[in-house]
Design goal:
By secondary structure, the protein is mainly β. The chain contains 1 helix and 9 strands. Strand 1 and strand 2 form a beta hairpin.
Length: 93
């Protein structure tokens, strides 16, 4: 599994971190990163969770783009951590 970062992006007025995600040819859902996974009535869902930390700048928001899947805007006003979850099914598209 590889994850790369390109920080020179803007999207809908927010700064955007553009990420690329890939899994080896033999990788399966069970081999995917399970951080942030949850159990629902219809089973276990794998995905990738990323944590980002605000810098106290209330005038900016951040979005994460991972394999074309865009996260909601994350406020940078807080200096605390925010978790962004990407469902594995969306990342394989």
């Amino acid at each position: 599994m590889t994850l790369s970062l390109d920080s020179a992006n803007k999207f809908e007025g927010a700064n955007a971190l553009k990420l690329s995600f890939s899994m080896g040819a033999g990788a399966t859902k069970s081999a995917a990163l399970k951080t942030g996974s949850y159990i629902a009535t219809n089973g276990l869902y794998a995905g990738v969770s990323l944590r980002v930390k605000g810098n106290g700048d209330a005038s900016n928001k951040l979005r994460l783009l991972l394999n074309g899947y865009i996260s909601p805007a994350i406020s940078l006003a807080s200096t605390g951590w925010s978790t962004v979850y990407f469902p594995l099914e969306r990342l394989r598209a």
